[in-house]
Amino acid sequence: MSLFVASLNSGSNGNCYYVGNEHEAVLVDVGISCRETETRMARMGLSMRKVKAIFISHEHSDHIRGVTVLAKKYNLPVYITQPTLLHGGLRLDDLVTDFVAEQPIQIGTLTITAFLKLHDAAHPHSFIIACGDVKVGVFTDLGAVCENLVQYFQQCHAAFLEANYDEGMLESGNYPYHLKRRIRGGKGHLSNKQALALFIDYKPAYMSHLFLSHLSKDNNDPTLVHNLFNTHARGTEIVVASRYHETAVYHISGSNTQVYAPLVSLQTSLF
Question: Which range of residues forms the domain containing residue 253?
Fold first, then answer.
């Protein structure tokens, strides 16, 4: 069993993550337009025909901006809780399917499990996607490392993990005080330091890839955070998910990992 994974975009300007196998796939969040989603997937050699469902983590616009058009165009079920649907103002008609934390959902041979997270949204969740014993986590928009996150992170062969800001850059930057307080206030975003502590303390030995995600444009630096995590990688490849374009497509398995590069340079795909 194995999974193909990629970030289509990761940041406050839009988030969208692809996880699938040979036969079916899901998208976690659609925070970029339908057209941009299609364009980026085509560049990666991924087909929308394999996408069988969309899972929405919470209602902030950088996670739902493109979901309505994409879901209706391809008649895709959207797994979203009622509070998130209501606060997001989404009109998805009969495409809506509710989900409950900790109750696995079967999409073909994929198993998706949601769990509650700490974030300043109505009903925020993270997800873990499994195919057989291979598991990939999508863990972004996290105010703090909670027990749920630790439990699921320890199971992952690969994970998208938020590393939103460098504490020094945020403190000395131009953001107003109320915004700085929101970001680091326990229901905002995860700092490089917090994410690194989770990685060092709870990374399973078999984790092949860590995708550093949702980096702040103003309060983080891709090279800085890549080097920080790479120092402690212990055999895990560190990839920075860009806020401007897609990553490569990675083939995650229990024994080995292959990389399928998109039509951008490796330097561009990293940063």
Answer: 2-270
pLDDT of 239 > 60? The answer is: yes
End-to-end distance of the chain based on CA atoms, in angstroms?
30
d(CA 172, CA 167): 9
pLDDT in tens, 118-164: 999 999 999 999 999 999 999 999 999 999 999 999 999 999 999 99
Phi/psi of residue 165, each to 5°? -145, 150
pTM of the shown model: 0.94
Question: Count of CB atoms within 10 A of residue 266's CB?
Answer: 11
Ramachandran region, residue 208 (left: φ > 0; alpha: ψ -120 to 50; beta: rest): alpha
- pLDDT, position 259: 52
Dist CA 161 CA 154 (whole Å)? 12
In angstroms, rounded to a whole number, what is the distance separating the alpha carbons of residues 42 and 19? Answer: 15
Instruction: Please give the radius of gyration of the chain, using alpha carbons only, rounded to the nearest integer.
Output: 17
Total residues belonging to the chain: 271
The whole-number average pLDDT for the span 23-27 is: 98
Strands 78-79 and 51-55: parallel
The one-character DSSP state at 5 is E
The total domain count for the chain is: 1
Strand order in the sheet with 158-162: 105-107, 110-116, 125-131, 134-139, 158-162, 209-213, 237-240
> Residue 229 sits in a domain of what CATH number?
3.60.15.10
